[in-house]
Amino acid sequence: MSIKANNEITLDTFTSGVWKENPVFVMLLGMCPVLAVTNSVINALAMGLATTFVLLASGLLVSLLRNHIPKQVRIATYIVIIATFVTIVDYVIQAISLELYNQLGAFIQLIVANCMILGRAEVYAFRNGPVKSLINGLGQGAGFTIALLCLGSVRELLGAGTLLGVQIFGNGFEPWVVMILPPGGFFVLGAWLLLFNWLKERREQKQLDNAAVESGS
């Protein structure tokens, strides 16, 4: 089976994953790790980098093999490829820091089931060349990591009064314990979604206003 590749690379190939197609704030994908491991910046960064690695490696391999993967078994093939790289990440994190590995828990293994990665393999890597797939995957990974850091920084700052373990507020600060608990993830995610939707609507309104001015001139 032959897949026609589109090798045209533009700035949007990378930036779409950071803004217009942000996996968390726009697509609402990968919600389990977003809500579960963002109680600290370190956890958020580790999960973001791990997911980005799997996204890049699996997307590259799927793109390289796209002309040799039978259509009937492509989903099963994606899962095997993704699971292979997740296993590598799992062992690497365990070797680097057992404490971090215990904090992330089963969510490292659950990267296999992250619909963002499976979706990128099916929708993008299977239809584009390796270089374009890498750039798009890097943008998606950056957008996912930024979203995790947005949640992790707010939750750690308000829930513990620290950033990266460094005390920010004085001894008189009373931590908002709810922020490092699961409900805190929902609260902070909702606040960020409101901000992103407001910015999106503001940008669209500005475009409409500019179009109206140009049509009237």
TrEMBL record:
Its main location: membrane. The keyword rRNA processing does not apply. The chain crosses the membrane at residues 41-63, 75-94, 100-121, 133-155, 175-199. It is an enzyme of class 7 (translocase). The keyword RNA-binding does not apply. It is found in: Cell inner membrane; Endomembrane system. It is a multi-pass membrane protein. GO terms for cellular component: endomembrane system; plasma membrane. Keywords: Cell inner membrane, Cell membrane, Electron transport, Membrane, Translocase, Transmembrane, Transmembrane helix, Transport. Belongs to the NqrDE/RnfAE family. Part of a membrane-bound complex that couples electron transfer with translocation of ions across the membrane. This is Ion-translocating oxidoreductase complex subunit E. It comes from Solemya pervernicosa gill symbiont.
